[in-house]
Amino acid sequence: MSPAGSGAMEQLYQQVILDHARERHGYGLTGDVDAAGTGESFQVNPTCGDEVRLRVRVDDGTVAEVSWEGVGCSISQASTSVLTDVVGGASLADVEELSALFGELMRSRGAGLGAEAEEQLGDAAVFAGTSKYPARVKCALLGWMALRDALIKGSKGE
Amino acid sequence: MSAAVTHEVPALTAAELAAVRADFPLLERTVRDGKPLVYLDTAATSQKPQCVLDAEQDFYERRNAAVHRGAHALAEEATQAYEEARSAVARFVGVDDGEIIWTKNATEGLNLVTYVISNATLGRGGAVAERLRLRQGDEIVVTEAEHHANLVPWQELCARTGATLRWLGLDDDGRIDLDTLSVINERTRVVAFTHASNVTGAISPVEQIVSAARAVGALVVLDACQSVPHLPVDLRALDVDFAAFSGHKMLGPTGVGALYGRRELLEAMPPVLTGGSMVEVVTMAETTYMPPPQRFEAGTQMVAQTIGLNAAVGYLAELGMEGVAAREAELGERMLAGIAQLPDVRVLGPTDGADRLATVAFAVDGVHPHDVGQYLDDAGIAVRVGHHCAQPLHRRLGVASSARASAGIYTTPEDIDAFLAVLAQVRPFFVRGRG
Question: Which residues of B touch A9 (CB under 8 A)?
């Protein structure tokens, strides 16, 4: 069923986003929060109460395990789900770069980043449409904020 | 007040409604690629009629001066306009001129009451402030329906003074559960509650709560932020001690609100903000204070906004608040009846039109409120999403957040119908592609 209007909604809520929001990858916390190289972060969006708790284990400089739980809108849920796909198995240097690219994508006000960067982001590039809506950017970033924080905590052995 | 919205006063005709809408320039604009704006977020802030915009501009163009200081011609005119605005607002809610204190908004008004009680508890205000002092074992009662502005200041007051915070519960419709009135007891010193919920639209049983508070000698503080813009409100008849409301929700400017206080209480109250304009004699060691309301209006005031608010209450008074309430009740009924036809949408709050405002929070099955709001917004329909500054109320209703549509005097039946038509598309859109 197509919505009233311009198709802006199909652009924002692409099928891949709705699919990830429904079947969330990496969902359900795994591993032991106290294990070596493991960090966990809880992030909340105070305007809507959306929550993400994300756990990450780093082994030999790569993301060995990433899992999460949370409640929220389709953008925040899908974005965190896609995140686990794109950072799972990646080196910390790659994660750093992906995280920076995704932040840049969110600041692009709907313009996107060009083919090369978007190819690097993989499925995370489908959130280009979200960057048109300043109020929703926080939703897309919620999981990424949690990842960044969890990695810091894991590296400090917290 | 039972908020008996009688329908004896005829609602506006289509021509009268068109004339009202013509007074609100913003309603002409389009949003999201040329779609007509359907503004259903009046509970957050109302739009402003031309007369309010003109009144503020006229003040700056012809009468701008600081008030209650200086003796030149402009200062006289500005002071007169500022005090006329106070009289107009006082009349609008049925109290005396000297019982209205200007504040920035309702939040500031409610906080002011809590800081007065704090200061009195510290011994400020002398013997006359005795009845405002909290002692060991005292309790303050709020409700689970409160906006954070009428909850958090009381939590803070309790933390500062050692008083205990208690609350009235809600039923499953979000109405204050009168079976919990026994929470109010001989230790209760203040009962603070909302006149109408900013989420569910439910109008509180003021009479019963005030009567329980009076029986134990507690002060009554009413959050009238949602009621004053939409219902005829006579604060004297409601028999409350304090009431706070905001200008921007009642067609007025932002930056101005009012706190009503019963005169003998205001006279007994120590000040909160201190400085210029609120003093009598200042020496290096100490100061004596002006009588109310000036005692509570330190520093240069929001004069232009008070004058805008005067125009707003004039506009509402001309329409007649009985008529405003009757018309908005019809809009609320239309919204509730329409939502009842949608199997995937659930109203959070009372589902019948009695004793409620045309403010309707709702949940769409399986779709997060942010996504609901986004879809409506794409069609030009502005609703609020989130917890609406009422997290405990949402928790009580079993949700983290909601979407909320709220009507105002300029809302048309067509606005409601447009909202309902798009609302019906929301769930099908978000579940597309599911097997």
Answer: 374-375, 378, 429
A117 touches chain B (CB under 8 A): no
Q: Does B429 touch chain A (CB under 8 A)?
A: yes
Domain ranges of chain A: 8-155
Q: What is the CATH number of domain B53-317?
A: 3.40.640.10
Q: Which class is B14-48+320-430 in CATH? A: alpha beta
Whole-model pTM: value is: 0.94
Give the torsion through C-alpha atoms of B406, B411, B413, B418, to 10 deg: -70
Topology (CATH) of A8-155: Sufe protein. Chain: A (3.90.1010)
C-beta atoms of B374 and A1 within 8 A: no
Q: Which two tokens stand for residue B319?
A: 């329409």
Give the tokens for residue B295. Answer: 């005692």
B432 to A48: CB separation less than 8 angstroms, yes or no:
no
Q: Chain B contacts of A1, Cβ < 8 Å?
A: 425, 428-429, 432
The string of pLDDT tens digits covering residues A99-158 is 999 999 999 998 989 999 999 999 999 999 999 999 999 999 999 999 999 999 999 876
Q: State percent of chain B over pLDDT 90.
A: 94
